[in-house]
Write a structure and sequence with these properties.
The protein is an all-alpha fold and about 210 residues long. It is built from six helices and two strands; from the N terminus they run αββααααα.
Length: about 210
């Protein structure tokens, strides 16, 4: 029988067999199979596990800015409003149709109307508030050249005041106070670790 294999396959480099002794990495997919190409394998030591998963330019901030976050925040606010408003509308529709004694298709239609009306109304309200807040936050970050908790407090206060600006000075101030209070709770929650460390150092000074 004539051997039709290429002469080069007979004189292949001995460094690549069923195990590469230089890297101690097997070059076969399973036991008993023919050796794979050495280019399909690599030494895992060349891929250190301590490197970050994402590459950032030197000195870049490793988080998205307010402008990038605005889109996800607005979308999340609309979906949250639609969900909460739909659930509230369903509950109100159940009460209204039960009191009216409606059944069958008429009751289902009324339930859908209540859900759609309340869901769209709350989704629109939360979406508008989030657009205002994101706009103020982006402008303040651009003017001040930094993004910190002061921007969050100022943006939330201005949002509350603008949202209630057509209802009179008293409600305008009340809206600003509510926005400031919600933003303060948010900032305290985000910086709870730093606050606990400060409290620990004040109680037990070095």
């Amino acid at each position: 029988m004539i051997d039709l294999r290429d002469d080069n396959s007979k004189n292949s480099s001995p460094a690549y067999g069923r195990r590469n002794d230089s890297t101690n990495v097997p070059v076969t997919s399973q036991r008993g199979l023919a050796p794979l190409s050495p280019y399909l394998n690599f030494d895992p030591s060349y891929l250190p596990a301590t490197q970050p998963e994402f590459i950032f330019p030197e000195g870049a901030v490793k988080q998205r800015g307010r402008f990038e976050l605005a889109f996800s925040q607005i979308g999340a606010a609309c979906m949250l409003g639609a969900g909460v408003g739909g659930a509230t509308g369903f509950y109100r529709g159940l009460k209204a149709t039960t009191l009216a004694g409606q059944t069958g298709k008429l009751r289902r239609t009324q339930l859908i109307n209540h859900m759609m009306k309340n869901g769209s109304s709350l989704a629109n309200t939360l979406g508008v508030v989030t657009v205002m807040y994101s706009g103020f936050g982006v402008v303040l970050s651009w003017v001040r050249g930094t993004d910190d908790f002061l921007n969050t407090l100022a943006a939330a206060t201005a949002t509350g005041m603008l949202f209630k600006s057509t209802a009179g000075l008293r409600k305008c101030a009340l809206g600003g106070g509510i926005g400031f209070g919600i933003a303060s709770l948010y900032c305290l929650w985000n910086n709870r670790e730093a606050i606990s460390q400060l409290r620990h150092h004040s109680i037990n000074p070095a």
